[in-house]
Amino acid sequence: MRIPFVGGSDEGRSTPWNATRSINFFVEPAAQDSKSPAALVGTPGTDLFATFPSGSIRMFHVMVNRCFVVSGTDLYELYTTGLYSASLGTVPGTALIVSVDNGISSLGVGGNQILMLAGGLGYVFNILTSTLTQITDAAFPANAQQAAFLDGYFIVTAGNMAFSVSTLYDGLVWPALATAAAVAAADNIQKPFGSNQVLYLVKDSTTEVWQDAAIPTSQGCPFAHIPGSLVNFGTLADRSVTRVGDTVFMLGSTRVQDSAVYFGFISISGTAVEKISTPAIDYRVSQLTSLSDAISYSWVYEGHLFYVTTFPTDDLTLFYDVTTKLWFDWSTHIADTSYAQHRHLSNEYVFFGGKHLVSHYSEPKIYEMSSQFYDDDGVSIISIRIVPPLFDENEDGNIKIFKLVIDAETGVGDGTTGHNGAPTAWLSWSNDGGRTWSSEYSASLGKQGEFRTRLIWRRLGSPRNRIFRLKITDSVKKVLLGAVVNNGMKLMR
Fold this sequence. Notes:
Elements: E1 2-3, E2 21-23, E3 25-29, E4 38-42, E5 45-51, E6 57-63, E7 66-71, E8 74-78, E9 98-101, E10 113-118, E11 121-126, E12 131-134, E13 146-150, E14 153-157, E15 162-165, E16 179-181, E17 189-195, E18 198-203, E19 207-212, E20 223-225, E21 234-235, E22 242-244, E23 247-256, E24 259-269, E25 272-275, H1 279-286, E26 295-301, E27 304-311, E28 316-321, E29 326-329, E30 346-352, E31 355-360, E32 365-370, E33 375-376, E34 379-380, E35 383-386, E36 390-391, E37 398-400, E38 403-408, E39 424-430, E40 441-444, E41 455-458, E42 465-472, E43 479-485, E44 490-492
Antiparallel strand pairs: 1-43, 2-35, 3-4, 4-43, 5-32, 6-7, 7-8, 9-10, 10-11, 11-12, 13-14, 14-15, 15-16, 17-18, 18-19, 19-20, 21-23, 22-23, 23-24, 24-25, 26-27, 27-28, 28-29, 30-31, 31-32, 33-34, 35-42, 36-42, 37-44, 38-41, 38-43, 39-40, 39-42
């Protein structure tokens, strides 16, 4: 009997009901004639690409074919070789920096500037002159929090209902009349966002959509609210807002009486809203300590479109595959023996020099991400799959499990990983709805070239219900195709 082995993370409020979890796996749909309709594939590993002198990575920004990093308080240019320039200036503070650019003039239009917001202040770096300048224009908003770029203008918000607009292609000049307020609903702007030639003003519990009204900044705000475009969803976490293609994704909130409350992860395209999180994911998120510090990014990889969100306070990373519409857990192991789940090491992502690069959340390091890497810079990736429960649907008796066979790509050892060069898969189970777990029992994934190796466990008892958990800790390629229980389950009456 084939059991539902391949899937995402959908553990909810009751593990006896559903304890399903995929940690450091994602689902790859198969072609029509494949052995199984889908497989579980191990998440990409990371390899060290660059190390800066000190501090954590506060900004990671690609402007056309150039990459800029703020590590600690120093601004650097990162090269495709992993080397970097001398310091190009300093940006005080320790918190993450908001950055956005206005394009390169050599491409036709652009101001050659990166706008950076740190500690409520604004800074502009000109990539042609390599000059870093603090914004001193009296009309620049105090306590600047978030920024966007659209149609030649920088847009900056300060945590209230107002926003300010720079002069065309110049983040150092902020005309006093080029301001407006998003007052269609009485909530504050969390993040401005330009997408598909419209300006989204994502607020606490609503989103307003504005468009370029062709008004000179010397005469007023160049943008105007589109009538009838109010969306009754916003966000509690400004850094969760990111674009995936022409769609804006975010940790969504809505208004209940006088408060903005978590609704679920949502996508907004135009004014159409789609809820992308499951009730199980919503329950997990609603139990977290803090939602406001959530950090998100999106990336396209090997035919998948991923939306990644980390909750730093709660040490948790979840990611959504837009391609399969499934959720998964992503964890970087900390060198201990507990194999506990933690957040993924990445904070921000860029594609630069043909590589997928991420910044470490607490160290001055940049990593390359790739499916060709099977660990996180030498640290094992702990991959875990917890499957849906097996039980007698008629509640008529126990089930006798003679044998479990997990179909996987084997012979993946490299001669050094695992026991005597053979990586190992570890099986445990729970007979009480995922509350406690058995000891772990091993099966070999095969040394290099041992392609006919099979993952088999026998004489697994006669439980009333059973949840299986598979764990792979070795740094090898991981592809799991499915699982079969002894050609069927026999009832013990």
